[in-house]
Amino acid sequence: MQITLTVNGAAREVDIDPRTTLLDVMRHHLDLTGSKKGCDHGQCGACTMLVNGRRINGCLSLAVMHDGDEITTIEGLGDPGNLSPLQAAFVRNDGYQCGYCTPGQIMSAKGMYDEFNKGWPSHVSDDLTAEPNFSTAEIKERMSGNLCRCSAYPGICKAIEESAEEEGLTTRKAAE
Amino acid sequence: MKSFDYVRASGIADAQDTAGRIIAGGTNLIDLMKHQIETPPKLVDVTRLEMTEIEQSAHSLRIGALVTNSDLAAHDTVRRDYPVLSRALLAGASGQLRNKATTGGNLLQRTRCPYFYDTTQPCNKRAPGSGCPAKEGINRILAVLGTSPNCIATHPSDMAVAMRALDARVEIESPNRGTEMLTLDEMYVLPGDDPSKETVLEAGDLITAVHLPQPPKGKQTYRKVRDRSSYAFALVSVAGIVDVEDGKITEAALAFGGLAPRPWRDGAVEDVLVGEAPSDALFDKAADVLLQDAQGFGENDFKIPLARRTLKAVLAELTGVTQ
């Protein structure tokens, strides 16, 4: 089937079998191998990308269902030598060891900042109707869909905290 | 994954295709298709249908079947008037999955029983008549209430547990029966002789919305006990709504997850509570009634005392009794 996706700002036409996931379209059809295949079952988050601005698991998304959608992958954020604030903060804080989960972590954090800005609560929010605090506990809960088997979580959290304002987080920081 | 024909529905009639398997968020179905647990010859994509709105009226909240779990949990009215539902949704899955998973799809997700997922094993739900090794096998996450000799699977949804406590009704468009409004107890069937049949829905039936009645009186909470603090299915969960006036419980709605093949609600438990002054002894009586027919299968025996403690903790929280 012929579909058109807007990938990192550019219209891309692909002719695919309906079984093809968004993740496989990126990696196999468009040579965008930044998004990673970890578990391929929605459990690890390595394939996280933004679809129409929201973070999703690319491995659990049939590309034919996303005809016309806007996709942002890690390749859409920055380039070597011109890193996005979040990418630079991951480097600065050792937010990885092997690096395989990193594109998913970064795309998930991008989506999470937006969810904070919209005032979405989480499982650890004390008050469902209040503006959520940008606290470490909130970050950990909201990032639980991204596993890091090297366990670089302290660096990942620090990178996400450090670059939040540069990445456009507008919600109030927790008084910690 | 087995190959399939893909059809994008542009109206309800397209979706009422008796030869097609409906797909919306796909977070469970695509996984099941990758494992070849489900091998639909035809997928009908309903995501472009107009079922994405949450509409408020004087007497109810109508949640379109395509409202995502994220949007429902974050909806102002749900956060304010139905916090048990927000809490249940936020206790389930991950941020990424909640952004895709839909209200209708969440209700119809399949069990995570390890034997259902392992196609090398017998499973009466996946391959009717092949047997149920779970009863003598790995059953830590499986059911202690509502089981049959053929199946001890649990329903995995958190959202549905809160909806059960809230007396939600599911709006269904059926090509044969027209528009129906079913409670969750009417929609879900217990495993009995045929665990492959999980609901009364027939081929071509489409869930179009879920209706919540007016917000109940009293306090609401959702407590979920699981093996890790985030992104895990419930071992036991309790959705509780309790109103106390003049020192007595006047209304109580309690639904349970992780215990049974469907969100579990037992009116007899609520009858024990209503009209009485809340106390630790009363809560124990309610737990006695809930668990009188509970049966463990070895690894999951712990769920019986865990359900008692979780229920008592929820009742203490909702009534202000110190345990």
UniProtKB/TrEMBL annotation, chain A:
One of its GO terms (molecular function) is metal ion binding. Residues 1-77 form the 2Fe-2S ferredoxin-type domain. InterPro entries: 2Fe-2S-bd, 2Fe-2S-bd_dom_sf, 2Fe-2S_ferredoxin-like_sf, 2Fe-2S_ferredoxin-type, 2Fe2S_fd_BS, Aldehyde_Oxdr_Iron-Sulfur, Beta-grasp_dom_sf. Keywords: 2Fe-2S, Iron, Iron-sulfur, Metal-binding, Oxidoreductase. It holds the Pfam family Fer2. This is Xanthine dehydrogenase YagT iron-sulfur-binding subunit.
Automatic annotation (TrEMBL), chain B:
It holds the Pfam family FAD_binding_5. Keywords: FAD, Flavoprotein. The keyword Flavoprotein applies. Residues 1-217 form the FAD-binding PCMH-type domain. GO terms for molecular function: FAD binding; oxidoreductase activity. InterPro entries: CO_DH_flav_C, CO_DH_flav_C_dom_sf, Diverse_Substr_Oxidored, FAD-bd_PCMH, FAD-bd_PCMH-like_sf, FAD-bd_PCMH_sub1, FAD-bd_PCMH_sub2, Mopterin_DH_FAD-bd. PANTHER family: ALDEHYDE OXIDOREDUCTASE FAD-BINDING SUBUNIT PAOB (PTHR42659:SF5), XANTHINE DEHYDROGENASE SUBUNIT C-RELATED (PTHR42659). This is Xanthine dehydrogenase YagS FAD-binding subunit. The lineage of its organism: Bacteria, Pseudomonadati, Pseudomonadota, Alphaproteobacteria, Rhodobacterales.
